[in-house]
Amino acid sequence: MNFEQPPDAFEAGLAPLWQRAQAGDEAAYRLALQKMAQRLRAYLRRRLTDRPDDVEDLVQETLIAVHVQRGTHDPALTVSHWMHAIARYKLVDHWRRLGRREALHDPVDDFDDWPAEDAPQEVGSVRRDLSTLLARLPPAQRRAIELTKLEGLSVAEAALETGDSASAIKVQVHRGLKRLAAWVQPGTPKPPAGG
């Protein structure tokens, strides 16, 4: 895929897949998520040059949010607008967690390939879906994700909170996000709670 293709070309390839996915086509859903992941990686690599290890975690967080919020996509909006809005929120949250307030003031020109429309939010249902997914994780992974990704603690702060090492927290977060990402793929069996 050409990461530098214009937004219209990206949308032209994504929209038909997303329409089929929303109608229940699991193969189209997998392809749509793959296209989204490629686009997200390119975008995040450009903005997280000083933190390349965070790129994949943030891609997975965004894809999980796309999956959880898929029912909020308004067919009147382009899929890329909706996906980009979710990605922007995730990136801003990430910067806030890192204390990079200055990064919140990136020039508007940096967002030319990211449409300005906001995605509709159904916060209550999203939180319920997220809670259901998190409940299925092993307790150490769930707690590490809750502390670092939801409560905004640094890895060091989460380590102090749990009594684990910073390395253990990073591993638990990475494994937990990887597991969550696998579960949101269509056709993937969901394990029992705590599994």
How would you describe the overall organization of this protein?
This protein has a domain at 122-188: Winged helix-like DNA-binding domain superfamily/Winged helix DNA-binding domain (Arc Repressor Mutant, subunit A), CATH 1.10.10.10. The protein has 8 helices and no strands. It has 195 residues and is an all-alpha fold.
Rg calculated over all Cα atoms: 17 Å
Number of helices: 8
State the end-to-end CA separation. Answer: 36 Å
- Shape field: globular
The count of DSSP E runs of length 2 or more, i.e. the number of strands, is: 0
Q: Average pLDDT across residues?
A: 77
Structural class: mainly alpha
Largest sheet: none
Taken in chain order, the helices and strands follow as HHHHHHHH
What is the CATH T-level topology of one domain? Answer: Arc Repressor Mutant, subunit A
CATH architecture of one domain: Orthogonal Bundle
Low-pLDDT ranges:
1-5, 106-123
What is the strand and helix layout of this fold?
Elements: H1 7-22, H2 26-47, H3 55-68, H4 79-98, H5 123-135, H6 139-150, H7 155-162, H8 166-183
Helix pairs in contact: 1-2, 2-3, 3-4, 3-8, 6-8, 7-8
